[in-house]
Amino acid sequence: RYSTSVVSLGDIRHRKNGYKEPDSPSIHDLLDDDLLMYGTKENGVKSIPKFLTRISTSDMCSFLGLIVVSIIVRLYRLDHPSSAVFDEKHFMTLASKYIRGTFFIDVHPPLAKLLIALSGFLSGYDGILNLDEKEFSGSNYPYVTMRLISGILGVFIIPISYLTIKLSGFSTTAAFLVSALLIFENGLVTQSRLILLDSPLIASTAFTMLMWVKFHNEQKRPFRTWWWVWLTMTGVGLGLTVSIKWVGFFTTVFIGLLTIKDLWDLLGDLHLPPIRWANHFLARMLCLLAIPVILYTLVFAIHFSILENSSEDAISMSPEFRHTLNGHGMNDTPIDVGYGSTITLRHSNTRYGYLHSHRHYYPSGSRQQQVTSYPFKDENNLWIIQKESDPKMPFETNPSWIYHNALIRLSHVYTEGWLHSHDTRPLVTDSEHQNEVSVYGSKGHSDNNDLWRVEIVDHDKSDPDSSKRLRAIHTKFRLFHINTGCYLFTHSTKLPEWGFRQHEVTCGKGATYTNTIWYIETNSHPNLSSDTKMVNYKKLGFFGKFIELHKVMWTNFKSNILHPYLSHPSSWILLKRGIGFWNKEHNQIYLIGNPLIWWTSTLIVFIFVVEKLIAILRVKRGYIDRFNVKGEHFELWSNVFLMGWCLHYLPFYLMSKELFLQYYFPSLYFAILLIGVGFDLITDRFNPKNRTIIVTIFLIASIYIFILFSPIAYGNTWEKSSCENSKWLSSWDYDCDLYVGSHLTRNTNTTGIEITNPEFSDIREFDKRAVEAEDEDNEKEEQCQQEVQGLEANVETNKEQRCFPRMGHPRNFKAFLSATI
Amino acid sequence: MASLYPEQYLTPVSTGDIRNRYKPNYKSYTTSQIYDLDENLKERKSYRSLIGLSPTDTYNLIGLTIIAFFVRLFHIEHPNSVVFDEVHFGGFASKYIKGTFFMDVHPPLAKLLITFAGVLGGFDGNFDFKEIGMDYIEPKVPYVIMRLLSGILGVLVIPIAYLTIKLSGFSTIAAFLVANLILFENGLITQSRLILLDSPLIAFTAFTVLMWVKFLNQEKRPFELWWWVWMAMTGVGLGLTVSVKWVGLFTIAFVGLSTISGLWRLLGDLRVTPALFLKHFIARALCLIVIPISLYMFFFVIHFAVLRNSGSGVGFMSSEFQQTLGGHGMQDMPLDIAYGSTISIRHENTQGGYLHSHLHNYPTGSKQQQVTLYPHKDDNNLWAIDNQTDPEVPFSETDPNWIYHNSIIRLNHIITKRRLHSHNVRPPVTDADYQNEVSTYGYDGFEGDANDHWRVEITDYDKSDPESRERLRTLHTKFRLYHVITGCYLYSHKVKLPEWGFEQQEVTCVKGGHYPNTIWFIESNSHPKLPDDAEKVNYRKPGFFKKFLELNKVMWTTNSGLTDSHPYESRPLSWILLSRGINFWSKDNRQIYLLGNPLVWWASTFSILFFITAKLIFLLREKRGYKDHMDGKKEHFESWSGLFFMGWCLHYLPFFLMSRQLFLHHYLPSLYFAILLIGVAFDLFTHKLSFRNQLITAIIFLVASVYVFTIFSPLVYAGPWTKTDCQKAKWISTWDFECSTHLDNYEDYLNSVNIDFRESDNVSNITEFSQESESTTGIAFEEQPFVKEVYDHDEENRFEDDVDQDVHEMIANEH
Fold first, then answer.
1. Is residue A124 part of a domain?
2. Cβ separation B657–A636 shorter than 8 A
3. Is A484 within 8 Å of B766 when comparing Cβ atoms?
4. Has residue A26 been placed in a domain?
5. Which residue from B604, B599, B607, B595 is spatially nearest to B704, judged by alpha carbons?
6. Considering the domain boundaries, does residue A753 fall inside one?
7. CA distance A33 to chain B (A)
8. Greatest CA span in chain A, whole angstroms?
9. Is the dihedral of CA B384, B387, B388, B390 positive or negative?
10. Which tens digit of pLDDT belongs to each residue from A406-415?
11. What is the tens place of the pLDDT at every residue in B274-283?
12. Residue A794 belongs to what domain range?
């Protein structure tokens, strides 16, 4: 019957009526919307004014208790590792740069770093940091105050999470459970004790979530004061989050999706006239889009105003940008360029700099003099523009400007050769459509391969002359090689050591357009009068700087470094591996979560996902599971938190960047919130006493495990045996050998190294001795080598055989190996 | 799923049920307009078979196919030299014929087909397609028949497109229009005239879509014969597509998503019992998963069967794999390893090769002798295992000195007599805190120091050889080497040393962490005192599945590693606007440049935009309670345009996530779907017009497209063109075909035909000129010796050198 009859989507879905009358109302039954507003009493009792907290006294007690406990847990021995842990050195350096006002480039937005710098500044840090020194103790580095920033923000998330659970309508027990779990999560504790960005990030994410919950509770009273307040605060939270790390963008997406859902539902309500809907829309745009953007730019404005001085990092910024920094300005240069002018040519698309040549030759190919692109000012960057026909064109009273399509030759001032190209493949980019560029010829000798045609492609709008003829800085042009039909080109490829790692310059046919554009940066002409018009770079405005810095940050952000503790997102949820932050003598800090809490949170997430899937399937098969109000409430909030978890976790799968365990923490926060929801859902029908018992048992277990792993969170001493015992998973790779235990005897036996005193420092000393001895031996060996070479110097062929016996391979080998990556 | 705003929350603002703003004025839709649907099932029964066409359709199809033959195959022999990627695919064909192993990032089907065509034409494989512009005529390469393969598959796309539109229920005019637009799409023509993979890919994709459309039309008659046929054919299509290029995975995703949505609808139908649903599910899994996978593997079976001999690609493969190829075997090695054995140690996780040292020192750090990883067999890979205390342990047969787990050893480099050494110095390249430099250190007679001590930690062993778990045995035992004093493991990774290290792979000692990169095994082994009849061992030859998996893994990593820049690469965003093409070939004042027909291309992009906007508007109107039905055709339009749009998305958007180099021709499968959408959009726009007006509109559009096609046709056929015409054709400044290569007027081309054999006058003139000019003036400069050649290649490495050359080229030019 099924196979032949037309299968249509009938309307006979209502298999059975699964709807039951709701049970007698409980605290979760939010039929009366006033109950939803936590703490507001409805029955004629005057409601407490809607202040930020609105907390009942019993809540207040547990609240305060939690804060005290968390302060103790998070700030205990905050000064302990008195040396730089993990990335601390990096952020300390950046803080010192803020204090001294020297420009730097980092991959993260500035807010958290500004806070760290501020705390350092307030405690009297002068910004002088010996970079090689990793020890803070005994110096004047106020590292404890700087760590306090992380610490205090880490404490903040405890009350925030409490309120979040409470205000989204769950029980006090659940709220208590969630915040207690957050206190005793080893990973969060470790993060919040160090000068890192993660603690501020998690705090602001949590804050944003809380504000959105408050806003959501005001949903029924649109456009009233508190509606606006919470909406604005959500926007502020978003702005803060994204100004700490770009990962905060996930939070923005999260809130954004919730808002879109919200607006979509409003749109479906035909009672709502379009104008009113537009009001809703605009209000949200204003608060959730405009405010964060303004905040973000504001933070950058502060960033720029503090970093006034130039530094090495500024080399990767454009000349216009650098012009805004102190100590990196350029002198004004005459604007007019004529035949006979001495110029420096600068590449416009990359920051690799000036067209450069020096008295070194290509090792193969034409073996002519190298031409490179070199980022620093140097006399070897100077070229003279000369006319096609007559190299020694005198500068006349009526100057001969260089117009579009003019043919020129470029003479290198120092080596007196000519910029030259020919049908030879370049050494590095050995491809069909590239020609080698060299300097060739001598003062009187030049050939047709030295001819370049000037093609003006862009000019400064304020200077119409520059569209017709070459003018310094204003005119952007390409140089077309007449004989081979290619354009002067450079790109990010570097020459090997023979080219001093400068950037390659070639002549490309059909090469990337933007990489063939050059302009003249400096310019001088002997016959030009001294009162000639001068020109300089335009100073970039704030937005120009803002955009440029972001481009550079983005390229840095994408670049990968190698690190032994990289991990893949799929390993995070199972806590397969931590991160070794620091180790020294008998102590170490190793970032790892509280396994019980971590795995419980993963389990809860998993349970909710399965539950949602089953619900969807059942709906599709026509079962009507009509939830009562309580059910819908659970459904709603578990959806929200689950979405938060997904959006802070899943995008990492798409990133090809290197990833670390700590990126999971925002997700972990949402997963732990879900534990609260799950707890309420499961213990819904239990009496309060049993619920308390369950919570207590779970909490005690968590605290026990927290204590078990606490030595590696705080960097305390540990027993070797208990360290070994705590390795529940073999992939947790903290180093138990650091701790004192019975292992030394084994070592002695097997290595045969004489260790009289079973102290570890001795092994190190031994090592030192070994190194010293080695240095001596090195000298001996060098002598030996020299002798050997002396002997063989006469016999050239022999030498090759002996010194390079069956050496590997020349150049192409690189391609082979890179292919196997 | 509960709404975020349950009704209780929203008293003033509720999503009530009063949506029906307007009473629906719903006319029933006359289904007879739709081809191949139920109502006229009986009368059409006669041609419900494979073709099922009305006479008009048949005429149209035949006409279109004939025109397509002319347009696509016109002077297909013309550039009688190697064009663009013919370098690769022609080269692969010659390697297939010779049976030498090669590595390519694409699955084998299309290349096998090309080879087959070549064999039919009598190609003996003795032409290596080394570079673009090499002449075909002289070595008698049957290139025409190889190109014909692409050409004929390209022609097939046209009737397929016609049928696709027709069978999905749109008008004959729309079908005719779509087929013609594809016919006159310059980009598709260019691709289908050359030995490339894109033409087969597009043909198979189009075929799959057609089969899927047939299947969807049969959806209401499940488990009947034709239902099975079309579904199985879809599976076959998918298998073929994915065996041509991995881009075919997008096609699989497309059909997969469509299947899932079909199953989802089926699930919602309560008359379908779970058992029946399961049957549906299994049928689809069988046809759409099992068939493609078996086809895909089948082509690899052929691939392996053809490529028997070792060749340029072996460097990518594991030693076990190489063992299966002729000419690359390894001799059997003694199994037992004792103190005093001379061994070579191979890195397990990378293909970097053997632990190697040579008489060159690190330029920085300790300045001691370098230790690297070197992929080729060489005497510098040999090490002697010494006991930690006494280098000269006597070997006794009764009580041999085996090396057990946790033994401490020293490794003595045979040639330079130095020992493997590490110390607390940062390596020169990976300058990180947790890395120590590894060097060889000492001299003959130096008794060594404690920094030469390494502890053997066995991590894995061969299941068939339990002894290899306890002590070192050749090949079977996988182990790590722990540096006793600094507590680090011998490690190597895919970071190359600079030139002073001859670009070999870096070896360091790494602290902390369990890395797969710290695992080593012993490949060759000899001991002077070991009897000749000692137990021998060799690599186990992997079976088909192992080889298949390994090759696919290597293809994947190579594919994603293609990040070199190429002058004609482009990013996906530029494709939809056709902002740039690809220069394929240029010679004799003619050129081939891959560029679409701008009119067709932009129209297709427009139809995509149109679809998105229309969809959004419908969605919004529906949410606000308006009911649109468009004479009942809305559903029909929506479902088909949705399907084609999904095809476009799935063949286009994933490219945004790829970081490898991308080219315009990667967009062509998407373009096919976009052009199908033009047909849908045409019907939607004109569904109120009379037949005559529809026809007129279509014809105007067609004439315009053909006109634009002729403007750009010299770029397709490498035909004569004048500079002025060329300049005029540069509608967008970013189209960078080179106009200066062309002659000034067409008569000059006639003349140049007469002197055909003095080819490339201009070009050679210029180069001659430049050589001349150099030789006259450049004498003084050539005498400057720069850097002496440091060493010569060893004779034995020449073969590998060629390998690298090939690989290098492949990486540089692969698309």
1. yes
2. no
3. yes
4. yes
5. B599
6. no
7. 7
8. 110
9. negative
10. 888 888 888 8
11. 899 999 999 9
12. 758-820
